[in-house]
Design brief:
Elements lengths: L3 H17 L5 H13 L3 H16 L19 E5 L2 E6 L7 E6 L2 E6 L5 E10 L2 E6 L4 E9 L2 E4 L12 E10 L2 E6 H24 L1
Parallel strand pairs: 1-3, 2-4, 3-5, 4-6, 5-9, 6-10, 7-9, 8-10
Helix pairs in contact: 1-2, 1-3
Length: about 210
């Protein structure tokens, strides 16, 4: 029979053990402990258990999405929990890594991608992940959303152009948001806004 207080006690003990093993710092320990104290459902217990399991696994733990994406030999692991982080994909000989975000905000900046396919694996639960595209690259979006929203504002490229790098995004988002943002589109809208403002000012000056 499920006993909420008993399960919260087990989580607290496990959390203290991880802290004693230097798996997390004091700030992260306090944030997770605060959330454990606020847990009211069995579902929330499962989410926190998963987060702590991911923490314990560390950078050597890799979860590869069961899509048709090629399986890289090794994923670099990045975990965001109750915080905001920024990471970069800018090493030509590396894959995009695995980026997990729980109850936080994760910003991933894709820089100087090599030709060919770079696989980026993301998992976002009750959080937001922004993927910032700074180069002229192709996007293949294989993210599986559940009660979530995916917004893609990247400018479209010629999918048949083999000279362009491809960012192949896999993973899942549950009760969260994924935003794929193209810096070029932001600059384009900025220039459009500036032109409109100039026309407004010129019109006012003529009155």
């Amino acid at each position: 029979m499920f006993n909420l207080d008993e399960e919260k006690g087990k989580l607290t003990e496990k959390l203290a053990e991880q802290f004693s093993q230097n798996i997390m710092d004091m700030e992260e320990y306090e944030r997770i402990l605060e959330y454990i104290n606020k847990i009211e459902t069995k579902r929330e217990i499962s989410i926190i258990e998963k987060i702590m399991t991911e923490n314990h696994a560390g950078e050597n733990h890799a979860v590869v999405d069961k899509s048709d994406a090629p399986a890289p030999e090794k994923f670099k692991k990045h975990v965001t929990v109750f915080s905001t982080t920024t990471s970069y994909i800018d090493e030509p000989d590396e894959n995009g890594g695995e980026h997990d975000c729980y109850f936080g905000e994760n910003k991933i900046i894709a820089n100087n991608l090599p030709k060919g396919k770079t696989v980026l694996n993301i998992k976002t639960i009750f959080g937001e992940t922004k993927i910032i595209i700074e180069e002229n690259i192709k996007i293949t979006n294989k993210i599986i959303p559940l009660f979530s929203e995916i917004t893609d504002t990247a400018l479209k490229t010629n999918a048949d152009d083999d000279d362009l790098p491809e960012l192949y995004i896999t993973g899942k988002v549950i009760f969260g948001d994924i935003k794929i943002i193209d810096e070029r589109s932001k600059q384009t809208w900025k220039k459009v806004g500036e032109k409109i403002m100039k026309k407004i000012i010129d019109t006012i000056d003529k009155i």
